[in-house]
Write a structure and sequence with these properties.
Length: about 375
């Protein structure tokens, strides 16, 4: 897995490892240059291997995971030759590519399972026209053919993989089931932000990296239009990324600094979800956004783009939240205002959130990994 961050995905996989270990399997977590906080999350029942540990002492490499993965391929090949694990699971695209190259170079008979969490751009499919084309896209079809099985985080991602590699692909769909039993519990304290302490304000939340595919400009323009009608609404955006300056400039130019604020990366987001009225997602592409699931578990009123893929599946085509067209800020503004007037009942949202519990996710991953190993 990635060696840089700890999120819902990472925490779920740590629990999967613990569960497999309890069932009598030998479990190893393999990192390339992971930091100490990530290593500490691994349960004591599992082993940890941190290749290229020295990379954390070099500033130019320490925070660039793709460089670590590239440099670590040869070491990963040696690991596969030495340990010859029965099954090797990688959980996002850069680690997937590194694992498949290492397997190709090795002599190991290890079965590689690739977890695919995002949509890949494919020519001649109009529904993917908004998906960013990347340099790695030409490598994915070549290397992914060497995988023994796939775990897709949504039916949309499964369909995308099958269009890319063929209908006969061995794919299992496992949603991002990231809600633990404590998710709905009231936090010990409210976030410090003053908006949460003003009873006259209604706070909306957005969570995610500040990158192009999240299309924050559409969200910000939509919020400007909605706030012109309802002066009490506010928007807090959690996350950091390369588009930060661009987004800050847009907020400033639209004179929305008193209504929209960036809070940067926040380690514990649960209090923000819990005390927010609504949640916004404006992405042009996703896989199965954990942020929408977490918002659902916190009974937020959700307004999300109907992008490929994930939001529509989570919200059951609009039954549990409002879906809008990609890059349509006027429609999003309309749905924000609609969510204030017609609230979806909390009990209904919690009923749907029950389909995304981490307990079920752990079992599904454990069963899938065991199934790939046994050939079922």
């Amino acid at each position: 897995m990635s060696s840089l961050q700890i999120g819902a995905r990472e925490n779920l996989i740590f629990q999967v490892g613990k569960d497999l270990s309890k069932k009598g399997h030998k479990v190893l977590f393999v990192f390339i240059g992971a930091h100490e906080k990530l290593l500490e999350k691994v349960d004591a029942s599992c082993e940890t291997i941190n290749l290229l540990n020295w990379s954390n002492r070099i500033p130019l490499i320490r925070k660039v995971n793709k460089i670590k993965l590239f440099l670590g391929i040869w070491h990963l090949k040696k690991f596969l030759n030495k340990e010859e694990p029965d099954v090797f699971l990688s959980i996002s695209i850069p680690p997937n590519l590194a694992a498949l190259v290492a397997k190709t170079l090795s002599k190991a008979k290890t079965k590689i399972i690739v977890r695919q969490s995002n949509i890949i751009s494919i020519r001649n499919y109009p529904e993917y026209k908004c998906v960013k084309k990347r340099m790695r896209d030409f490598l994915i079809p070549i290397l992914y053919k060497n995988a023994n099985g796939f775990i897709a985080v949504s039916n949309g991602v499964k369909e995308n993989l099958q269009r890319l590699l063929g209908k006969s692909l061995n794919v299992r769909v496992i949603y991002n089931k990231v809600l633990d039993k404590n998710w709905r519990d009231e936090p010990k304290r409210k976030p410090k932000h003053s908006w949460f302490h003003d009873p006259n304000l209604v706070v909306f939340l957005a969570v995610g990296r500040l990158v192009a595919k999240k299309d924050y400009p559409t969200m910000i323009k939509a919020f400007q239009v909605a706030s012109n009608t309802n002066h009490s609404i506010r928007l807090i955006i959690l996350g950091d990324g390369p588009q930060k300056n661009k987004i800050e400039d847009l907020i400033k130019n639209l004179k929305m600094k008193d209504k929209i604020q960036l809070q940067g990366h926040v380690q514990n987001t649960q209090p923000y979800y819990y005390y927010s009225y609504g949640f916004l997602l404006s992405s042009v592409s996703e896989g199965m956004p954990s942020s929408v699931i977490e918002a659902l578990g916190a009974t937020c009123q959700i307004v999300a783009t109907d992008c490929p893929s994930g939001p529509s599946e989570i919200l059951a085509e609009g039954k549990y939240g409002r879906l809008v067209k990609i890059k349509d800020h006027k429609m999003m503004a309309q749905k924000i205002l609609e969510s204030l007037e017609y609230r979806i009942p909390e009990a209904k949202l919690l009923e749907r959130a029950g389909d995304f519990t981490s307990k079920d996710g752990i079992k599904e991953y454990s069963d899938a990994i065991s199934g790939f190993f046994s050939g079922n």
